[in-house]
Amino acid sequence: MKLLFEKSIKGTSGHYVAPSDVPEYRLDTSLLRGKEPVLPELSENDLSRHYTQLEKRSFGVNDGFYPLGSCTMKYNPKINEVTSHLEGFTDVHPLQPDDTVKGCEEVIDLTKQALCEITGMDDMTLTPAAGAHGEFTGMMLIRKYHEKRGDSARTKVIVPDSSHGTNPATGTMNGFTVVSIPSTPDGYVDLDALRAAVGPDTAGLMLTNPNTLGLFDRNIKEITEIIHGAGGLCYYDGANLNPVMGISRPGDMGFDCVHLNLHKSFSTPHGGGGPGAGAVGCKEFLKEYLPEDFSEAEEGAKAKMEAHPDSVGKVRSFHGNFLVVVRALTYILSLGNEGIPAAAVQSVMNANYFKVLLSKKYHCAEPGLCMHEFVISMEEEHKEKGVSALDIAKGLLDEGVHPPTIYFPLIVHEALMPEPTDTESAATIEDAAEKFLRVYDKAMADPEAAHSWPLTTVIGRPDEVAAARRPHLRWEPDGEEEFGE
Amino acid sequence: MGGYLSVNEADKKKMLSAIGVESEMDLYKDIPEDLLLGRKLNIPSGMSEQEVLGKLKKIAAKNKVYPTIFRGAGAYRHYIPSIVGEVTAKETFLTAYTPYQAEISQGVLQSIFEYQTMISELTGFPVSNASVYDGATAAAEAAAMCRDKKHVRTLVSAAAHPDVIRVMKTYAWAHGASIELVPTKDGVTDLDALSSMMDSTVGSVYIASPNYYGQIEDVSKAAEIVHASASKLIQGVNPIAAVLLKTPAESGADIAVGEGQPLGMPLSWGGPYLGFMAASDSMMRKLPGRIVGETTDGKGHRCFVLTLQAREQHIRREKASSNICSNEALCAMTAAVYLAAMGPDGMKEVAGQCTSKAHYFADRLASVGFKRTYPGEFFHEFVTDTPVPSSTVEIALDRADILSGLPLDDSHILWCATEVNTKDEMDRAAEILKEVTQR
Amino acid sequence: MNTPKELKYSKTHEWLKEEADGTVTVGITDYAQDKLGSLVFINLPSEGDEVTEDESFCDVESVKADSDVMSPVSGTVEEVNSELEAEPEKLNEDPYGSWIAKIKPSAPAEGLMDADEYEEFCSKEDE
Fold first, then answer.
1. What does pTM read for this prediction?
2. What is the ipTM for the molecules in this complex?
3. What pLDDT is stored for residue C125 in this prediction?
């Protein structure tokens, strides 16, 4: 398919802006760029069709089952889009006087209150723009806490080997040394290894619970006590909150701060990779360190700063991804105190049902019940027949199913990690299970053929090695050859 | 109770029996009893869609939507063609995950590749990433790209946006570094002061042009000074101004970053916005976040993939310099649709009108006693002195449903005009101010 | 697996060749390139860098991994093979022709294996 630039027809751009009604002012040519930027010129019809074509070459939650583990691809309610498009939210300048943005402040307050209750935290900031951004913020709180106490020896952050890749990277961004501790064979934190790892240099622990194997760590209280006993703090990665929201709270498990991905548990759309929002909650003793949720440019900023002298600072301009927060609040208000735990329960029921159905053929990394997701290992099949997790994933594409997360967590070889989410029906799960099983049989029957899947998608497997060896990161105006469909 | 579940009681019964448990709560047998909440959440009961919409409409109505805005300071009201919102509301774009499965994500990947090309064109640099959270975090990430054991210092112009400075400070603190402010002189960065602050331990220098006060900086001269110490220059860019002004690449900067909100994103009380980042080839592998590249599939068809992934957190883990995963992909698409809809002529028209209207407005304000504070050329924002307290100005214009320029202090106001402001609006504001000063 | 007899080998799969002028030439082994898969980038050290035995002195990237290359010897980097920046595939195609760096040792390298020992070491790693 051609690029916008290759479809450009000179002189066909639409006219959207009213003509100027003031005298023209020209800047001195010494200030101006030498060459105009090359931008595509398309009629609105051609432009509109271009994106409709692109839409057909994409896969959203509406296109089919989307069991992407640890990503919580649940249905994104339509009402979220209506409320977040209200003019009273979209057309408000971030630096308006305080008394003209009472509605925005109410959205923030209501959302904070609800999320504090759901997590068992005492205060919350909604300014981080994504989960990783929330992690960064949360770990800054821990760093600030030790710094304020003059405890400069606490330089190490403990991260289990089953953690999300963001956890170690976040530790490093905060200047911590990351200490990885092993999991037990049954997938839990190894308490002995944890005890051996903690000491006067322990700043804290970063943990996902339920963990990336889809297991709720039943020793969680003991884990957080070991960290606290050593003088460290406990950080809860909320990427997997969905199965326990309204059921069990990180605050009660002993965590001191958390981040939540509003684009996972709270139904705001993923947008092809953002925008999301990463709320960060903390216990009372950390709240003075929370980032500033006002702009340094706004009315009374100085007084507001002076009122929060120990804040870690500011993690994003203005007030964060406000419209994402509006969507999350809409979801919370819709579900309420019955709907939130009901969604959690259903996510767990769906995952376990799917696990039971897939276990007819696939080998699960851990036996028994899971939370909202579970992990399959293709290690045996790969050894015996050369069928890899990647082959299964690509085979699923031909079945119209979005593949699960693959090759994660790292501690399971040839991993496939499905998370069906709460919004799928029994029939959808049964249908998906049939497809998973069919792909399994086909791959085992003809492993060679499986390596060339998918067959029905608009492109075959892309050459990622060539892409990375000779990066081609933009369209060039000249010398481009024509490409067909 | 509102909810989006797709199973009924009969389904539940069937599922529980297949799983082999008696009740829903049996699914949670791994959670120790004392960790179960065991009560209802202390939040309101669920509501119907009708009630939720009613409630949020009421809340939204508590905000004031100004028909006329002369305030910019990092967030700008521009005209947004209808097609922009329509395209980005497409359900598939809205709900898709990050395009890791390239075979079924060519649409999203191609749209990012097109976006990267446009950012390259605006900045003059060959490489753009797929976006970061906003302009302030883009600046902070750029500074981190240039920081290593030998280059620990980061200098930031005091004429940068206060939020950009604050966010850069916060990130630097987390990295165990700090930033130093380069003072201003006449509303622009004091390049003599910059010279005297430079040494070989400076990793990077950040200067925005147009800067927070709307002034156009001498970036070329700054680049010479910075490069004399073998440091990197990061230029903050307004993407609308970039259509007209010398590109960061032409001025000799090494990295361009900026707030992409003016490219089709509504004000939205500050977000979601779009951080864009572009750089020279030599900085390519230091760029944070996702990058889309062109390649071919087994049949030789052109296709697009996420590439250079070994830079990223999910592979490099504790060795990654940034932990970013989610970016602002839908906002990047918004920017691309906006730029494509406007086309080169439309963008020149918008940038030209911004310049003309801001200069007309500056003249009108000067004629009623609000003289520009600084000499030198500006784009679509400028600072004036105010003969009456700036809060008086804000209140007087608010009565006429006009959002005034941003009070910087009691006697200075930062004004902005874009293509959406009409001559009538500017004349009316000037008339009101004339009355205020004569009272 | 190709294991030239004239070279020495480290447990972290680097090869080392002692040159007549007292410097050593260093690269990654055939076994290493095979395990790493198609390499897409090498982050070379700089000339003049001080390197330490058994510590990372450069890294190589495949599509899905970033791996450290350990220095088999302590010393100073005298020369790097900058051709590899443009053509990282040479590390796969010709691992023993694609030297990474020439290092002037500050002390003799210890604990290196000869070709036979290295082959045996690799066959154990594969078990």
1. 0.96
2. 0.97
3. 83
Same domain, A105 and A187: yes
Peptide bond into A40 cis (omega under 30): no
Question: Smallest Cβ distance to B137: which of A24, A75, A316?
Answer: A316
CB contact, 8 Å: C64 with chain A?
A: yes
Q: Indicate which of A1, A10, A28, A57 best probes the interface with B, i.e. most B CBs within 10 Å of its own CB.
A: A57
The CATH architecture to which B68-78+342-438 belongs is Alpha-Beta Complex (3.90)
Render pLDDT for A339-373 as a digit per residue (tens, 0 to 9). 999 999 999 999 999 999 999 999 999 999 999 99
Chain A CB contacts of B390 below 8 Å: none
**Domain limits at A309?**
79-331
Contacts of B65 (CB under 8 A, 6+ apart): A87, A88, A91, A92
State the smallest CA–CA distance between residue B206 and chain A in angstroms.
Answer: 16
pLDDT at A479 exceeding the cut of 70: no
B400 at A interface, C-beta within 8 A: no
Residues A350 and A385 in one domain: yes
Answer whether A459 sits within 8 Å of B103, measured CB to CB. Answer: yes
Backbone angles phi, psi at B375, to 5 degrees: -75, 180
User: Which of B46, B271, B322 has its CB closest to that of A321?
Assistant: B271
**pLDDT, average across residues A428-436:** 98
A469 and chain C: CB distance < 8 Å anywhere?
yes
Say yes or no: A382 and A458 in one domain.
yes
> Chain B residues with CB inside 8 Å of C63's CB?
309-310
What was the pLDDT predicted at A482? Answer: 43
- Chain B positions touching C65 (Cβ under 8 A) are 310, 315
Q: Which residue of B has its CA nearest to A119?
A: B41
Residue C63 has pLDDT above 90, yes or no: no
User: What distance in Å separates residue B147's CA from the closest CA in chain C?
Assistant: 17
Q: What pLDDT is attached to residue A481?
A: 44
**In terms of domains, do A231 and A379 share one?**
no
Q: What is the mean pLDDT of each run of 10 residues along chain B (439 residues)?
A: 85 97 96 96 97 98 98 98 97 96 97 98 97 97 94 97 98 94 98 97 98 98 97 98 98 98 98 97 92 96 93 77 89 98 97 98 98 97 97 97 97 98 98 93
CA closest to B311 among chain C residues: C66
Question: Where would I find the beta strands (DSSP E) of B222-369?
Answer: 232-237, 255-259, 275-279, 292-296, 302-306
Residue C127 within a domain: no
Query: Measured between alpha carbons, how far is residue A420 from residues A68, A69, A83, A290, A346 in Å?
Result: 7, 8, 27, 34, 10
Each residue's pLDDT tens digit, A203-237: 999 999 999 999 999 999 999 999 999 999 999 99
Query: Which residue from B minimizes the CA distance to A144?
Result: B174
Q: Does domain B83-336 have CATH number 3.40.640.10?
A: yes
